[in-house]
Amino acid sequence: MRVSLIAGRCLTWLQFLFALVFCTVAIAAAGARAHEVTPAVADFSVKEGKITLDLRLNVEAFVAGINLDGLSDTNQTEQSADYDELRTLDARELEPMVRLFTEEWLSTFSLQAGGPVELNVSTITIPDVGDANLPRASFLELTGELPADARSLRIAWPVGSGGVVLRQNGVEAPYTGYLQGGETSPPIALGGGSAQTPVEAFLEYIPVGFTHILPMGLDHILFVLGLFFLSPRVRPLLLQVSVFTVAHTITLALGALGMVNVNPGIVEPLIALSIVFVAVENIFVRRLHSWRTFVIFGFGLLHGLGFASVLGEFGLPPSQFLPALIGFNVGVELGQLTVIAAAYLGVRLWFGRHPKYRGRVAIPASVTIAMIGSYWFVERVFL
User: Fold this and answer.
1) Is residue 35 part of a domain?
2) Residue 233, C-beta contacts closer than 8 angstroms, at least 6 positions apart
3) Are residues 179 and 90 located together in one domain of the fold?
4) Do 222 and 366 belong to one domain?
5) Are residues 154 and 246 in the same domain?
6) Which domain holds residue 264?
7) Number of structural domains the chain divides into
8) 50 in any annotated domain
């Protein structure tokens, strides 16, 4: 009797904890699209001893002084209000601030080609203020003179600058890589031939896929948790996750190959609805039906299109397209499995066999997930 009472009290506290955690997630994610951190892209080429580096980046976050390393949402920073204000400025008002920022930032940007190479800002291109729900991508063109005997170069991406996709242009077998703040590229041959090996491309894109789930993929996390809370039994969970994996792998590959291209303005609201659907069904259904499996497959196709849009931002090395694509997908799967493992160890392992698990844990969690998904749907369609 005493053990049962303790278990019941634990479930009550767990129910309260779920409400607290998921409400916190809902509040934090309310402006996720508007404040999502996207990686910078750096395309470089060398001609007649001169290097040109074209940067595409969320320049407002840099000007606001935000440390982007490991960050998924600018709302998590003390400078979020400054960032929001900078997003409302037009190019004429923002450009002087960008020039001041680049003077200091370039002192931390290291390019070595047999010696340090001094870079200067040639042009700054800032688009007009558009959809406030989407990060604005601005462009910086940096140029510098290489030593006459230079045969290769290395680029060190500054600490605090988040991730960057580094792409070489204008040569055969060009280098393509992904650097985090504070990391340095391997030596890149100026004449080409530094393309990654299949193994290098595979390994490099695993963390890219993983971080798209943890911590950046709140919508995908909630969908996976929606699958998790259907039943305390392992077999239905594994079947759902397997079907979801197969489906999103198909559209991820098709999207990355450019064979399927759907407007994110359509895909993102539908992904939110998929979260609502699985969560609401958990409230009224106790076991996995065959028709739910087909529905999950359809939702997996949608989520795969969302993953493909991320790869569109990063780009894949043309010479190692397939290994990089597989690595990204493996990273996504590892992220999903991590979410499931954490939920299993934190919840189901301890309370899955309790007779009140469904009423005190699964249903309240599903209701909260459905509410968050509903908010995202309204936000993505009407706000």
Assistant:
1) no
2) none
3) yes
4) yes
5) no
6) 2-30+205-382
7) 2
8) yes
pLDDT, one tens digit for every residue, the chain (383 residues):
444 444 454 444 444 444 444 444 444 444 444 456 778 899 999 998 899 999 999 899 999 999 988 776 777 788 888 888 888 888 899 999 999 999 899 999 999 998 899 999 999 999 987 766 567 889 999 999 999 889 999 999 999 998 898 999 988 888 888 888 999 999 999 988 877 788 988 988 898 889 888 877 888 899 999 888 887 677 888 888 888 989 998 998 888 887 887 777 788 888 889 999 989 988 888 777 777 888 889 989 988 888 887 777 666 777 788 888 899 889 989 999 999 888 888 877 777 677 777 788 888 989 999 999 998 888 878 76
In a domain, 200, yes or no: no
Same domain? For 190 and 267 the reply is: no
- 267 assigned to some structural domain: yes
Bond preceding residue 215 cis, omega within 30 of 0: yes
Kindly report the pTM of this predicted structure. 0.71
Does one domain contain both 218 and 348? Answer: yes
CA pair distance 329, 246, nearest whole angstrom: 11
Cβ-Cβ contacts under 8 Å for 140 (sequence gap 6 or more) = 54, 55, 57, 59, 98, 102, 121, 123, 124, 125
Structural tokens at position 126 = 């800032």
User: Long-range CB contacts (< 8 A, 24+ apart) of 256-261?
Assistant: 256/308, 256/311, 256/312, 256/316, 256/321, 256/325, 260/305, 260/308
